[in-house]
């Protein structure tokens, strides 16, 4: 593995991203409402939340394509307003929508992008070949982009984001629209980048993705940060070890919630099911039956980040 992919970040202990009171407004609409955050070198940091939470607006400010309305923001120790060009030269960006050039081959997409950063031709060829091996597209190097599957295009976009050997890689909803197999393959590639010391910052509304990839994350809602920590710490703080999902056929979950008072730590009625939060899901299920209730289906599972979001905001991540 070359120095570019194997490099462990040797930047100082200063955060690569530092924000205090960061605000972004569009007219009368406040997309990002006074957030504080920092991202350390080598960290995999995530923004979790539903559409409209402010994740993408924050990422656009970090990527120096949208200037803050107010507050303090430093990227790689620099001010995006004054040093946007210098910062962008050291970033790798994987946008939410693929913007690959369909007229170029897979390999040519990387070589052309490398020229934007002034990478010498010989070095660009070496990096392109290595990155295509890394994202498992070496056998498609001469193919056009259009015939590629969605997962292949996402992997190519990530390879392109790495071609300038960036200090910081930004990934906006990296697996949206992919099938489960493609998502897991992409997770594995991102995990390998993380292990090699690449600093990753990603937005997602997939809680399992955040749990898989992020060392630390913030939960956003309505332009604000409502919680911050590691995935495990957030679950331990805001939820219970297990959750029981109860479905009752035609009966409205909200009408049955009162009959389950005291079962578990709390009860959350959703439109299609009741969630019972408990330390012991099997014991909670037994208590439901003792109370004479007969659900049409019962699922006992561990708590997830979606449960955290439901507790903090009163709605699920996909609302």
TrEMBL record:
Record GO terms (molecular function): ATP binding; ATP hydrolysis activity
SMART domains per UniProt: AAA
Family, per entry: Belongs to the ABC transporter superfamily.
Primary residence: membrane
Top-level taxon in the UniProt lineage: Bacteria
InterPro entries for the chain: AAA+_ATPase, ABC_transporter-like_ATP-bd, ABC_transporter-like_CS, ABC_transporter_ATP-binding, P-loop_NTPase
Entries under Pfam families matching the protein: ABC_tran (PF00005)
Membrane topology of this protein: Peripheral membrane protein
PANTHER family: ABC TRANSPORTER ATP-BINDING PROTEIN, ABC TRANSPORTER ATP-BINDING PROTEIN NATA
Organism: Sphaerisporangium album
Domain ABC transporter: 17-247
Protein name: ABC transporter ATP-binding protein
């Amino acid at each position: 593995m070359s120095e570019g992919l194997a490099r462990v970040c040797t930047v100082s202990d200063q955060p690569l991203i530092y924000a205090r009171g960061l605000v972004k407004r569009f007219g009368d609409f406040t997309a990002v409402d006074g957030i504080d955050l920092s991202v350390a070198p080598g960290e995999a940091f995530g923004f979790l939340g539903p559409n409209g939470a402010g994740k993408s607006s924050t990422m656009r400010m970090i990527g120096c394509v949208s200037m803050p309305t107010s507050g303090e923001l430093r990227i790689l120790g620099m001010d995006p307003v004054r040093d946007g060009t210098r910062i962008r030269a050291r970033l790798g960006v994987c946008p939410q929508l693929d913007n690959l050039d369909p007229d170029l081959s897979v390999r040519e997409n990387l070589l052309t992008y490398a020229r934007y950063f002034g990478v010498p031709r010989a070095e660009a060829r070496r990096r392109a070949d290595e990155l295509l091996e890394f994202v498992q597209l070496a056998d498609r190097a001469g193919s056009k982009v259009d015939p590629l599957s969605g997962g292949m295009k996402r992997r190519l976009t990530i390879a392109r984001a790495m071609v300038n050997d960036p200090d910081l890689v930004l990934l906006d909803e990296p697996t949206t629209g992919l099938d489960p197999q493609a998502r897991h393959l992409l997770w594995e590639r991102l995990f390998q980048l993380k292990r090699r010391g690449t600093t990753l910052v990603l937005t997602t509304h997939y809680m399992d993705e955040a749990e898989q990839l992020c060392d630390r994350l913030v939960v956003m809602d309505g332009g604000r940060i409502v919680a911050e920590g590691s995935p495990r710490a957030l679950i331990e703080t805001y939820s219970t070890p297990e959750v029981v999902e109860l479905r009752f056929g035609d009966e409205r979950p909200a009408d049955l919630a009162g009959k389950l008072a005291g079962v578990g730590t709390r009860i959350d009625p959703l439109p299609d099911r009741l969630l019972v939060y408990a330390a012991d899901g099997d014991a909670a299920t037994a208590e439901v039956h003792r109370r004479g209730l007969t659900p049409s289906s019962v699922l006992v599972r561990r708590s997830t980040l979606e449960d955290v979001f439901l507790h903090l905001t009163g709605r699920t991540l996909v609302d």
